[in-house]
Every structure is written in structure tokens, then in C-alpha cells.
Amino acid sequence: MVKYLFLRCFCQILSRELQLEDLVNEYWDLELLSSNYSCRAYLEEYLLPQINCPLVLGLDEVDRLFNYPEIAQDFFGLLRLWHEKSKSPGLWRQLRLVVVHSTEVYIQLDANKSPFNVGFPVSLPEFTAAQVQDLASRHQLPWDRTQISQLMSMIGGHPYLVRLAMYWIKHQSLILEQFLEIAPTDEGIYSHHLKRILINLQADLQLFEAFKKVVNSSPESLQLERIQSYKLHAMGLVKFIGDRVVPLCDLYRIYFINL
Questions:
Q1: What is the pLDDT of residues 196-209, one digit of tens each?
Q2: Cα–Cα distance between 63 and 76 in angstroms, integer?
Q3: Quick one: angle between helices 159-172 and 129-138, nearest 10?
Q4: Can you give the residue range of the structural domain that contains 85?
Q5: pTM of the shown model
Q6: Origin, by domain of life (predicted)?
Q7: What's the longest Cα–Cα distance across the chain?
Q8: What total number of domains does the chain contain?
Q9: Would you say 122 and 152 are in contact if contact means Cβ atoms under 8 Å apart?
């Protein structure tokens, strides 16, 4: 029933965004057809013919569905199907999917039904020192190269962490040294971020133990099992040096070294 309601709502939102009449009730027959089929039919038989032009469907933060596996498995499979159908002649060729998700948390998906291993992947890279310097200037923070280096030692070039740091320092009138002192603690602005990572790691104790080995080995790099290295890198916790890994930044190393 939850998946049924989710897909109905999804189709209703599409209708509204495209400024088309909501005809969901005419395409939904729970007794005879699955909700997946009804959703596909709604696009194929109604929405796509009505617009008759290329459609880019952007889905942001789809990783939030990972908390609802009863929805995620089938919905992601549906997206994968639409992607495959868009390669063929016909109405589906008009559809383009842009799926944005965090890699901090993963769920087990059938490789043949996952929308995350097809198409053209784009990863958000870390900021360079020059980009961090430019962002500091935009926040009216007159930092020199040494201060930029100190900040990046603590949080790397992680776009979210860098932006949050500068916003907080500017609006709280902090000096950089004060910020760096409390950043890797529960008193700092990254407390929620760090606790969320801790919860995710505690859900996979083997991965948690592997990461603790990495932080305890720092500054020396450590070679882990490939799947462990891949998962930790996907979570944004480590960076590769060849086949070996080190903590992404001091924020994670300091916070997790005592756990």
C-alpha cells in the first residue's frame, strides 16, 4: 500500500509540474495491474504523448528512499527500466533522467535493476586550494595561503564542509583557530554530520572496524579489502593513495580515533 500511494503521488506531481490534467485515477487499477505497471502506463500513454517534446526528469536526494526499502527496490527498478526504454525509438526516447544521490549510505540492489550503474555518472569533486581561497574571498574572509592550508587540513576540500565552515565563521565572528579547535568535537558545527556517519558505520560493524584501523594507522596509508575501501571512499571518509587509503581529512581522523 505504501508503494501504491508513493507512485500515485509521484504521477500526480508530474502532472502538476507539466501543467496537465490529473488523470491518475483513470490509469490506476490496483486489482488488475501492479502500481509499477500503472505508473509506467501513465507516462507512456498519457504524459509523454501530451507534451510531445524532450523531458528532463530531475530527481534530487533519492538516497532518502534508502530508508524505505519496500519503495526503493521497485522504484529504482522502474527508473532503470525507463532509462533502458529511452534508448529505443519512440516516445520514451524523449525522456532523460537526472538522478542525484549521496553515496554515504547504500542498500543492496539487484545490479540489473539499479539506476546507479547505468548512464553517465558525475561525481562532485573536492575544491582545490584556489577554489577555497576564492570562496573565502566571497565570504569576505581575508585568509592567506597558510590559513587556507590549515582549514583544508581539517576538512579537506569537501564542498559542504567548506561552505558550512565559512558561513559559520563569518556569521559567528569566529577566528579560524577557534573554529579548528572545536570542529572535530561534539561542540562543533559538524556534530550532526559526524554523528550521522557514526550511525551509518555502526550499521556495518566490519566496516566500522576497518575505518578505525585506517584512522589509527594515519598518517601511514593502509590497504583494506577492496569492498571495504570502496564503501569508505563512497561515504567520503577516505581517499586513495594507489591501492591504499588514508582518512580524507583530520576532521574524521580526530573524531573517530578515540571511538
A1: 999 989 988 999 99
A2: 10
A3: 30
A4: 2-117
A5: 0.75
A6: Bacteria
A7: 67
A8: 3
A9: no
Question: CB–CB of 239/257 below 8 Å?
Answer: no
3-state secondary structure of 214: helix
Indicate the average pLDDT of the chain: 89
Q: Does 118 have pLDDT greater than 80?
A: no
- Pair (65, 151) in one structural domain: no
Query: Would you tell me how many other CB atoms lie within 10 Å of the CB of residue 237?
Result: 23
The answer to whether residues 113 and 73 touch, using CB atoms and an 8 Å cutoff, is: yes
Both 10 and 98 in one domain: the answer is yes
For 145-175, what is the HEC assignment? HHHHHHHHHHHCCCHHHHHHHHHHHHHHCCC
Instruction: With a cut of 80, say whether residue 222 has pLDDT above it.
Output: yes
Separation of alpha carbons 46 and 11, rounded Å: 11
Predicted pLDDT at 258: 79
> Which residues of 2-134 form beta strands (DSSP E)?
55-59, 95-99
Residue 124 lies in a domain: no
User: What confidence tier does 69 reach under pLDDT thresholds 50, 70, 90?
Assistant: confident
Same domain, 106 and 149: no
| Helix or strand holding residue 30 (H, E) | none
Mean pLDDT of 213-239: 91
